[in-house]
Amino acid sequence: MKDTNQIEKALRAKCVSELESIVNNFINELETKIRGEYNSCSFYELKHDRDSSARKGFNVMGTNQLKAVLTNTLITGHIDSMLSVKSRELIKKLELI
Fold first, then answer.
1. What gap in Å lies between CA 85 and CA 65, rounded to an integer?
2. How far apart are alpha carbons 14 and 1 in whole angstroms?
3. pTM reported for the whole predicted model
4. How far apart are CA 52 and CA 40, in angstroms?
């Protein structure tokens, strides 16, 4: 069972790495195109929609905190389905051998 756990951990790490790459690309675009060119905000308000009567959101300061929130959100929302797909792909590859 130790080998199975190592495989699952490796697949999970690969999925997390993919999600981190997506967030890193977004943050890079934000830094270079928005903050770099316009020298805009350092605080980001995250809430459901723009309507001020909507549920209260929360604020993060700077792109490091924004990056952490986005990464954690994507991991929470997508890691299980990504692991499922990657596991099926690995099983198909192993059946070919």
1. 29
2. 20
3. 0.81
4. 21
